[in-house]
Amino acid sequence: MHSSSVANFLERNTSFILTAHETPDGDAVGSECAVFEALRQLGKNVIILNADEMARKYEFIDPENHIQQLNSLDLVPNDIGDWALLILDTNDIHNIGQIETLILPYVREYFIIDHHESGEDIVSGNLVENNASSTCEILFELFTLLGIQLTYPIALALFVGIVYDTGSFIYPKTTVKTFEAAQRLVQCGVNPNYVYSKIYESNSISSLKLQSRVLSTL
After folding, report:
1. Are strands 15-20 and 45-50 parallel, antiparallel or unpaired?
2. Is the dihedral of CA 35, 158, 140, 155 positive or negative?
3. How far apart are CA 111 and CA 88, in angstroms?
4. Do 25 and 150 form a contact (C-beta atoms < 8 A)?
5. Of 162, 190, 158, whose CA–CA distance to 178 is shortest?
6. Edge to edge, what strands does the sheet with 110-114 contain?
7. Residues 6+ apart with CB under 8 A from 142
8. What is the pLDDT of residues 128-177, one digit of tens each?
């Protein structure tokens, strides 16, 4: 991993806005929560702004409600020009909703951390590792290199992202590195059964009603 570029980005900025792709999934939300805690550990100012609302099943990794939906200009810092934007789990700046028009043009600079395939013109200078199973797997390695302490909230958020984007460790990009990261996160106190139940067994009443209606038509 070439971590020097992201390390320099973090060093030269003191205030950060975190965002991810539209309709944020487990890897996006997990990445945001983990980076939020890591940056606070480094003494940085940090907020999370997404274009879309987070699914309620992920609330357990954001108990203090740091993740906000950008549905009002009041959420944009007045000194936006002093802030840097960190885009997580997408390398397409057109995939971040209204963040592209309300935040991106006005920040000091932006940086991308992601694992999806893309053109070199977009990912040049950023941290994009196409072979990684998830953005959270990249962050696990990055935090290790930067000396970030893997507190329980960070470990939990990273584990959620890895579990989600690997389909519980069955998708093709799942490697030895993925399992090594998962092992370390479990050693930090993460309970795999707890995470699984929260992600896959915590459907809302409305979703259960919809599922019932769909099944009744079969």
Report:
1. parallel
2. positive
3. 9
4. no
5. 162
6. 67-69, 45-50, 15-20, 84-88, 110-114, 127-128
7. 1, 3, 6, 113, 127, 148
8. 998 999 999 999 999 999 999 999 999 999 999 999 999 999 999 999 99
Q: How many helices (H) and strands (E) does the chain have?
A: 9, 6
30 Ramachandran zone, left/alpha/beta (phi>0; psi -120 to 50) = alpha
Using the CB atoms, write b or e for 114-130: b if 16+ within 10 Å.
bbbeeeeeebeebbbbe
Q: What is the DSSP string of 101-128?
A: HHTGGGSS-EEEEE-S---HHHHTTSEE
Residue 48 CA to residue 188 CA, distance in Å, equals 24
- pTM: predicted TM-score of the whole model, two decimal places: 0.90
Distance CA 151, CA 156 (A): 9
Residue with tokens 């993460």: 190
Q: Find all residues with CB under 8 Å of 132, minimum gap 6, and list them.
A: 115, 138, 173, 177
90 Cβ partners below 8 Å, 6+ apart? 20, 21, 28, 96, 112, 114, 116
